[in-house]
Design brief:
The chain is of the alpha+beta class. The chain has 2 domains: 82 residues, 2-Layer Sandwich (Ribosomal Protein S8, Chain: A, domain 1), CATH 3.30.1370; 83 residues, Ribonuclease E, catalytic domain (Hypothetical Protein Ychn, Chain: A, 3-Layer(aba) Sandwich), CATH 3.40.1260. It contains 6 helices and 7 strands; from the N terminus they run H-E-H-E-E-H-H-E-H-H-E-E-E. Strand 6 and strand 7 form a beta hairpin. Helix 1 runs parallel beside helix 2 and helix 4 packs across helix 5. The longest helix is centred in the first third of the chain and has 19 residues. The protein is rod-shaped and about 85 Å long.
Length: 182
């Protein structure tokens, strides 16, 4: 029964490696077999199945503790890579900036815009995600008031709940032209 299970597992491993285009170092943990001839039968079963595989593979004998090690070359991009693309919001990092991080980034950009356009711009509209706006209204309100004092116009904050947290727009209120975008 153990031999049959291990042979079936070896065949299925070979099949899954091909189907999923898995490459690299692969370690298969088999049920311990006492007899060397049983280990050889499992080894032969996986070698036979891997002959059908176009990828270059190298299989080592089963170790005394029941592990079979092998390497397999990946032929094409994986199915996952061909069907999915990186997230446009986090660029595939699977992480987005916190409201605090965005607050700091926007404050820096605002400061740069105010310094650069000191004599040409009055009121400035800042459009942000609602999470970032909540941060501006609470923890960072005093910092923004200081920033507004250094500017001759007002800073007007608006929320856009559909806007990704990492995106914002700084707009000249008089001309409604975007000065800065992130």
């Amino acid at each position: 029964m153990i031999l049959e299970t291990n042979i079936e597992a070896a065949r299925e491993v070979a099949r899954q490696l091909r189907l999923r285009n898995i490459g690299g170092l692969v370690v298969i943990d088999l049920i311990d077999m006492r007899h060397r001839k049983d280990q050889q039968a499992v080894y032969k079963a996986i070698k036979d199945r891997l002959k059908k595989d176009k990828a270059k593979t190298q299989v080592l004998q089963i170790s005394p503790i029941g592990l079979m090690e092998m390497t397999r070359q990946r032929l094409n991009e994986s199915l996952r890579d061909s069907m999915y693309e990186p997230c446009p919001y986090c660029q595939g990092r699977a992480r987005v900036k916190t409201p605090m991080t965005m607050s700091v980034e926007i404050q820096r950009r605002l400061n740069t815009v105010i310094q650069k356009h000191r004599d040409t711009i009055g009121d400035i509209i800042v459009i942000v995600n609602s999470d970032v706006l909540n941060r501006f209204k609470s923890e960072d309100s005093k910092l923004l008031m200081e920033l507004e004092r250094s500017h001759s116009g007002r800073l007007i904050f608006r929320s856009d709940p559909t806007l990704n947290r990492e995106r914002f727009a700084i707009i000249d209120a008089a001309t409604e032209k975007t000065i800065e975008q992130g």
